[in-house]
Specification:
Layout: H1 2-6, H2 10-18, E1 26-28, E2 31-33, E3 40-44, E4 51-56, H3 60-76, H4 84-100, H5 102-113, H6 117-136, E5 145-147, E6 153-161, E7 164-168, H7 174-187, E8 191-195, H8 202-214, E9 221-223, H9 228-237, E10 243-247, H10 250-262, E11 267-271, E12 277-280, H11 286-298, E13 310-314, H12 318-329, H13 350-365, E14 369-372, E15 376-377, E16 385-386, E17 389-392, H14 399-402, E18 409-415, H15 418-426, E19 430-431, E20 433-437, H16 441-450, E21 455-458, E22 473-474, E23 477-478, E24 491-499
Parallel strand pairs: 7-8, 7-10, 8-9, 10-11, 12-13, 12-20, 13-18, 17-18, 20-21
Antiparallel strand pairs: 1-2, 3-4, 5-6, 6-24, 11-23, 14-17, 15-16, 19-22
């Protein structure tokens, strides 16, 4: 199937999209349902500005129904009491159904969020399936513990599922980030209410259908669509939700913490914003650095939380690096997302496109220089496209150096000394990721130890694996997705202490 999909041209992908039946209802208690109010909202595709679906406009009543279904399923034990081997079988079946639904899921993802279709085919759908399968394999391999005690006592340390998980996911990688949360949460035996961003509801609804088809009992996975204020907030405030797992902006992440305190002190795990720095030393391989930097900011149109959006470069190689980045950027094709040659697609919506362009204007207004790019593209299509952009002569106090732009905009600042570079790189409220480029391994070790980021790459960027944890320091949040470490946030540890004669 994959080879066949790779062979399609733009017209074939457009025809497949036109023939697609798109579902916009929420999924609660094993069924597709309209919003309790009957209201919907229009989803406008960023590709061309046209309406592609009407989505159920879920509100507090719909959240109540989904949470009640999830709680009933949890207390009934339909899933949490399932034998580990059976839980593994269902989750592996879920992963296989995702792989088998590659075309539909890829089309939904690209139509909804504007990413290149071959990214959806090669990355987003397969990675989501791999994530579910990865956690499925832990089902019959996780052991509880026996603590060391006196000879006539026995202390067991057991993992128990938390209960009802509210998972709130963003629009930049809807499938992948949903899988990051669903995999460990379901493995642990929890029930989940998934709230997708209003800009990216389509693949979440389809995931719920596939999970149910795989054998997940009704109520174990529910999806409530709608706006953040109308559906996400009630979910975060709900007194019968035991945990909120949130990925999104730092601003909304802070609201999640407040809502938890105002309700039932539910647990909160946050993966929030980023302003990730590259530090390029004078002895760096400039061509390698330019490639890593360009792809690290322009992939997915810069709509990536750990995008390497700041470059601190030694003043002696600054011009050479910018020229090399421009050369790489020229090979990254901006175009229609259904064109197989496209590597940069559309930004998520018109408001976000205007926000990105506004940051470029702000940078120029504060004294930065547009080295290349900086303009809207393909305006006649009705879609929301922005050129790959570099702003040079950026000082650390500028808005573009401090605030998350979340678009294809790279800012460049020179430095003279290693200490200056480190201070500039760490001078941020964020701490999601960072990179250092150098031929000197002493410098590499010093810098990677000193950079404040959840992931630090050395002479590469955006390399990852399900085996490594992902998350940040400072206001990039806390808690980790991916790896075995993600499992522990979805469980409670219970000690059972027995004394005997």
């Amino acid at each position: 199937m994959t080879a066949n999909l790779h062979g399609r041209d733009r017209a074939a992908w457009a025809a497949a999209a036109a023939a697609l039946s798109i579902e916009g209802r929420s999924f609660i208690d094993g069924r597709l349902v309209d919003a309790a109010s009957g209201r919907t909202f229009e989803r406008i595709s960023p590709i061309d500005g046209r309406v592609i679906a009407k989505i159920a406009r879920g509100e507090a009543a719909d959240v109540d129904a989904a949470v009640a279904s999830a709680r009933t399923a949890f207390e009934r034990g339909d899933w949490r009491r399932t034998a580990p081997k059976e839980r593994k079988r269902v989750l592996l079946r879920f992963a296989e159904l995702i792989r088998g639904d590659l075309e539909r899921l890829a089309l939904l993802e690209t139509l909804d969020v504007g990413k290149p279709i071959l990214n959806s085919v090669n990355v987003d759908v397969p990675f989501a399936a791999d994530c579910i399968a990865y956690y499925a394999e832990f089902a019959d391999k996780l052991y509880d513990e026996v603590a060391p005690t006196a000879g006539n006592e026995l202390a067991l340390v057991r993992r128990e599922p938390l209960g009802v998980i509210g998972a709130i996911v963003p629009w930049n990688y809807p499938l992948i980030i949903s899988a990051w949360k669903l995999g460990p949460a379901l493995l642990a035996g929890n029930s989940v209410v998934l709230k997708p961003a209003e800009q990216s509801s389509l693949s979440a609804i389809r995931l719920a259908e596939l999970a149910f088809e795989a054998g997940l009992p009704p109520g174990v996975l529910n999806v409530v669509t709608g706006y953040g204020e109308e559906a996400g907030k009630p979910l975060a405030l709900h007194p019968d939700v035991d945990m909120i797992s949130f990925t999104g902006s730092t601003e909304v992440g802070k609201l999640m913490m407040r809502y938890a305190g105002e309700s039932n002190m539910k647990r909160v795990a946050l993966e929030c914003g980023g302003k990730s720095p590259h530090v390029v030393m004078a002895d760096a391989d400039i061509e390698a650095a330019a490639s890593g930097i360009a792809w690290g900011i322009y992939y997915n149109m810069g709509e990536t939380c750990h995008a390497g959006s700041r470059v601190m470069v030694h003043e002696s190689v600054r011009g050479k690096l910018i020229a090399a980045i421009e050369k790489v950027a020229a090979t990254i094709t901006l175009g229609h997302p259904f064109d197989p040659a496209t590597q940069m697609g559309a930004l998520i919506d018109q408001g976000h496109m205007q926000r990105v362009l506004g940051y470029i204007d702000s940078g120029v207004g504060e004294g930065a220089r547009v080295a290349f790019g900086g303009r809207r593209a393909f305006e006649a299509t009705g879609g929301y496209y922005v050129e790959a952009t570099v702003l040079d002569d950026v000082t650390p106090s500028m808005r573009v150096a401090r605030e998350e732009i979340f678009g294809p905009v790279l800012v460049v600042s020179p430095f003279k000394t290693e200490a200056e570079a480190l201070a500039m790189a760490n001078d941020s409220i964020y701490g999601l990721a960072a990179a250092v480029w150098t031929a000197d391994m002493n410098v590499a070790h010093r810098m990677s130890n000193a950079l404040r980021g959840g992931t630090v790459w050395v002479n590469t960027y955006d390399r990852s694996s399900l085996a490594t944890p992902f998350g940040g320091f400072k206001q990039s949040g806390f808690g980790r997705d991916r790896s075995p470490h993600a499992i522990d946030k979805y469980v409670d540890f219970k000690t059972i202490w027995t004394a005997y004669k």
